[in-house]
Amino acid sequence: YVCVCQNAVYRTVYTKCTVGLMVVSVWLICIGYDIPNYVGWGEHRFVSLMYICVYDHTSSRSYTIFSILFGFGIPSVTSVGCYVAIFRHIHKSKMNLAKNGGG
Q1: 37, 45 contact by CB (below 8 A)
Q2: % the chain with pLDDT above 90
Q3: Integer Cα distance of 41 and 79 in angstroms
Q4: What is the pLDDT averaged over residues 19-43?
Q5: 47, 53 Cβ separation under 8 angstroms
Q6: Taking the CB of residue 90, how many other CB atoms lie within 10 A of it?
Q7: Could you count the other beta carbons within 10 Å of the beta carbon of residue 4?
Q8: CB 60 within 8 A of CB 41
Q9: CA separation, residue 50 to residues 47, 53, 55, 65 (Å)
Q10: Cα separation of 100 and 56, whole Å?
C-alpha cells in the first residue's frame, strides 16, 4: 500500500531501523496474542496425527471469539481496505492519464 499509494514517503517509512522495529512488533503482537492460552483463558492441545500443538478452540468460547476477531477479522478488514485503496489509486491514475492524453 505505501509503495503504491504513498510512494513519496516510502523510503522514509521503510528504513532498516523501521523495518526491524516492524518485525519485532509483529513477533511481540503474536506472543501477546498467545499469552492468554498460558494464563488460563484458553488452552493448547497436541494433535498426534500432525505432531503439533494447536489452540483448543473448544476450551474457551470468549477466547475463540477474541481469536477470530483479532486473528482473522482485523487483519482481513485491513487487507481488504489496503487492496481497495490500491485499486482506487490505480484507477484514478489511469483516468488522469487518459484525460491528459497519455494513454
Answers
A1: no
A2: 56
A3: 28
A4: 92
A5: yes
A6: 12
A7: 14
A8: yes
A9: 6, 9, 14, 25
A10: 58
